[in-house]
Specification:
CATH superfamily of the largest domain: HUPs
Number of domains: 2
CATH class of the largest domain: Alpha Beta
Distance between the termini: 45 Å
Number of helices: 12
CATH topology of the largest domain: Rossmann fold
Strand order of the largest sheet: 1-2-3-4-5-7-6
Order of helices and strands: EHEEEHEHEEHEHEHEHEHEEEHHHH
Oligomer: single chain
Strand content: 15-25%
Structural class: alpha/beta
Length: 333
Amino acid sequence: MFDRPAPEEARQLIEAQGLAFEPGYDDLVGVYEEGRLVACGARAGYVLKMVAIEPGHQGGDTLGELVTGLIRSGLAAGQDSLFVFTRPQLARTFEHLNFRLLASHGAAALLEYGPGLAAWLADQAGLVRPGRNGAVVVNGNPFTLGHLHLVETAAREVDRLYLFVVGEDVSVVPFADRLRLAAAATAHLANVTVLGSSRYAVSAGTFPAYFLRRADQVAQAQIQLDLRLFAQHLAPAFQVACRFVGEEPLCPATAAYNRAMAEVLPEYGLGLRELPRLEVGGSPVSAGRVRRLLADCDFGTLGTLVPPATLDYLGSPAGQAVAARIRTQLEGA
């Protein structure tokens, strides 16, 4: 019987399988046998997670029944494609349920149900230009002169530069604004194409860690899946030969990401150019520095760190709403 279990009931089953219960979800479903919960899973937006099945019911129809219920839940909620992050040894099982493997490495695999990536790449096909192309991936939270320096430098080295703005809407600056500000700041660069990454720059906002035990494993899995998805799918589709990044002297997590790029991208024949960060006032320009100044309403200094379009935005009602969110975060830290 298919039903929706109580959270504590699901927690007991999930933890009995050596997994971790993650409270954030939109739907929780379960499969019962003689009144006993034997399988459960959850959906958070377009991500399926916490899929757990009692050992005696693994290998049969239970997983298919469970996943079918989660797919129906996602489709009813308006999701046309769904992700599942799981252990690589379970990837083939999900492939039998019409999921497509997007990337796999070490302790984690990413699969997708629905048209998703293929449809998104088809929609972007008109943007593809032949030549020696490059890519920059930014969050742009908000877009700074540091971002612009990176893009301008990279654009001089390639025929076409694709500026991917991370599509996950988990930043203080909404995605639509981040995309618009990136486009405005780079409008003078004829060989730069700005586009959103959709859900294909894997973000910490969607990556569930329920099947990994340690924080360092989570971080490494996140990085590896992100890079391999880019190298296996986005780079070939956009004919990208090289990825450009700024040096990272401030953030250990971003520095680790850059180190991983230097290891992973050459596996796929891709180059990596790590460029010196722009400095103003003796310090690297960073979006974090800009956010702190915005929280303090220091528009005099902000004007030295961001392009005109970003400065106008930060002074607008939308920018002041961003400032309020930043101050709330700082107060809660």
